[in-house]
From TrEMBL:
<feature type="domain" description="Hikeshi-like C-terminal">
    <location>
        <begin position="150"/>
        <end position="209"/>
    </location>
</feature>
<dbReference type="GO" id="GO:0005634">
    <property type="term" value="C:nucleus"/>
</dbReference>
<dbReference type="InterPro" id="IPR048364">
    <property type="entry name" value="Hikeshi-like_C"/>
</dbReference>
<dbReference type="Pfam" id="PF05603">
    <property type="entry name" value="Hikeshi-like_N"/>
</dbReference>
<protein>
    <submittedName>
        <fullName>Uncharacterized protein</fullName>
    </submittedName>
</protein>
<dbReference type="GO" id="GO:0030544">
    <property type="term" value="F:Hsp70 protein binding"/>
</dbReference>
<comment type="similarity">
    <text>Belongs to the OPI10 family.</text>
</comment>
<dbReference type="InterPro" id="IPR008493">
    <property type="entry name" value="Hikeshi-like_N"/>
</dbReference>
<dbReference type="Pfam" id="PF21057">
    <property type="entry name" value="Hikeshi-like_C"/>
</dbReference>
<dbReference type="GO" id="GO:0061608">
    <property type="term" value="F:nuclear import signal receptor activity"/>
</dbReference>
<feature type="domain" description="Hikeshi-like N-terminal">
    <location>
        <begin position="7"/>
        <end position="140"/>
    </location>
</feature>
<dbReference type="InterPro" id="IPR031318">
    <property type="entry name" value="OPI10"/>
</dbReference>
<dbReference type="GO" id="GO:0005829">
    <property type="term" value="C:cytosol"/>
</dbReference>
<dbReference type="GO" id="GO:0006606">
    <property type="term" value="P:protein import into nucleus"/>
</dbReference>
């Protein structure tokens, strides 16, 4: 039994983490694409070193290219278990947000890195000082906050750009039987705006940030 354990709903508890070296552990999850949540916990076999915690990472089996890792969170002696939602952590997300490190595979008896099934995933635990883990968490929270801010700002800037573009093509016509005028926009202007905006977005996904 390992220091770490893994719980997936509807499956047997797994405690067969492979020790890569003193501070790194790994386990393979079969049929990972059907999993929404998992729990990593300390089995109680032995506590982690004082002021240390276990950073949890996940990696999908790559189809060509290098293996990438996504940071999920951490556990510690004070927080001996944690629930992680992985249902939305797709292979595409992993490619967009890789972590700048890899686990040491030199001590694995079977080549789990290269022989894992296509639909499987690896869970890695890296035991490291809590000060480093907390610093990483702060960076992750800042990054998430910035992403949420961008998600809220994008539609506002896009719609403002759309309205301004339409106004530049507006033509006034008198209303029947009144002295009032109504503004109209040619239908082709909508198509033109959409085509231009899409082209610019494909060329530079962040161009919208420069819009007024």
């Amino acid at each position: 039994m390992s220091v770490f354990g893994l719980i997936i709903a509807g499956r047997m508890v797994q405690t067969d983490f492979t020790a890569l070296k003193e501070m790194e552990y790994m386990i393979e999850i079969q049929d990972a694409e059907s999993i929404n949540h998992l729990v990593i916990f300390l089995t109680g076999l032995s506590p982690l070193p004082v002021n240390y915690g276990g950073s949890i990472y996940m990696s999908w089996t790559p189809i060509g290219g290098e293996r990438q890792w996504n940071y999920l969170g951490f556990i510690s002696n004070e927080k001996p278990s944690a629930l992680f939602k992985i249902g939305q952590l797709t292979k595409h997300t992993q490619q967009q947000n890789p972590q700048n490190f890899s686990f040491n595979a030199s001590n694995i008896n079977t080549n789990i890195f290269n022989n894992s099934a296509v639909h499987s995933a690896l869970i890695g635990v890296k035991v490291e000082p809590m000060i480093e883990i907390l610093r990483r968490n702060e960076n992750e929270e800042t990054s998430t906050s910035e992403q949420l801010s961008s998600l809220a700002l994008f539609p506002e800037k896009m719609l403002r750009n759309f309205v301004n573009f339409m106004h530049s093509f507006a033509v006034s016509f008198p209303k029947p039987n009144t002295t009032q005028y109504e503004e109209y926009v040619p239908a082709k202007s909508v198509t033109e705006w959409y085509t231009n905006f899409k082209r610019r977005l494909e060329a530079n996904p962040n161009f919208w940030k420069t819009l007024p």
